[in-house]
Amino acid sequence: MNKPEYCIEVPLDQAYRLHTHGPTVLISAAYHQERDVMTAAWNMPLDFAPPKLAVVLDKSSYTRTLIEKSGSFVLQVPTIAQKDLVTTAGSTSGKTILNEQHTDKLTAQHIAAFHGQTTDAPLIQNCIAWLECRLIPEPHNQQAYDLFIGEVVAAWADARVFKDGHWDFSQHPELRTLHHVSGGHFFTITELS
Amino acid sequence: MNKPEYCIEVPLDQAYRLHTHGPTVLISAAYHQERDVMTAAWNMPLDFAPPKLAVVLDKSSYTRTLIEKSGSFVLQVPTIAQKDLVTTAGSTSGKTILNEQHTDKLTAQHIAAFHGQTTDAPLIQNCIAWLECRLIPEPHNQQAYDLFIGEVVAAWADARVFKDGHWDFSQHPELRTLHHVSGGHFFTITELS
Questions:
Q1: How many CB atoms lie within 10 A of CB A50?
Q2: Rounded Cα gap, residues B43 and B26, in angstroms
Q3: pTM of the model
Q4: Complex ipTM
Q5: How far apart are CA A157 and CA A142, in angstroms?
Q6: A146 in contact with B at a CB cutoff of 8 Å?
């Protein structure tokens, strides 16, 4: 699948703006013929330029295994229309699906994806931002805290809602971001009145 | 100033729920007679139990200096009514105020605070959650990434909006959280319709 036409490149020094407001994100990775995607509410920007970010990945996650093997991943920002996908991706194991159904989570759950520029990790369709990352190996952080640090090496956003370097959902409220509260319950964002 | 009467203790294993949805927060610290507060959009929970969290603190921040000296800090969640305070606390230096006005940022900017249970760091009034943290020293993370990790040792929330372990702003929309976008522009959160 090709990159959607509304998907524009974001200058690297603006990449932090894509998740400074605290959305729940999807993390994807691939290694050889294997790929996976998972939900991560615990993520944050870490630096402006070169842009870095941090994300918490549980040891049981198959996506984490693929990141450790491949050294790269994608952090992408899903929308309220993808709530079910985000919930399912966060509550099912790619390894279990692989063992039981002999296919990956994306195929089993009909999650469409396209190719990025610097990584084999799948870029999930219908998200509104994609940050391609090179893993900065920090074994102590990864083991002690499940904390992974990436350098953003390419960034993309949906031009319908990321304009002139800023989020603007006024024309497309259906593309607003998800913010996990607890137990599968989400908030979304809105303008301050 | 005493703790507000609506301020209830939150079980430590629920502390992560206070900022999983990605709010911009205030970080405060104190050392001997000095105290400071700063804004931090880049923060996230790091573990459930014992609860830990991570936050990015720029090297120029006086709050960071006080955290390094005292080994403790408070992460608190401000509301939309505190937007001006959050903007000002994020754009002024406590060290500059101390040098020029011979007082601290809280006094200079009329920011009221009360005492916590485990730390001398001030708990900022009119926030809706307060996480008292013990710094887990990680010199490499602090130097290389400005990344600070804390163990949450006491947690409090506003009982009007944190009920039965969950955020519920339906009765108090004026107490909703701030989510920094860029350039002093904020979103707030709302229920998914």
A1: 12
A2: 10
A3: 0.96
A4: 0.95
A5: 28
A6: yes
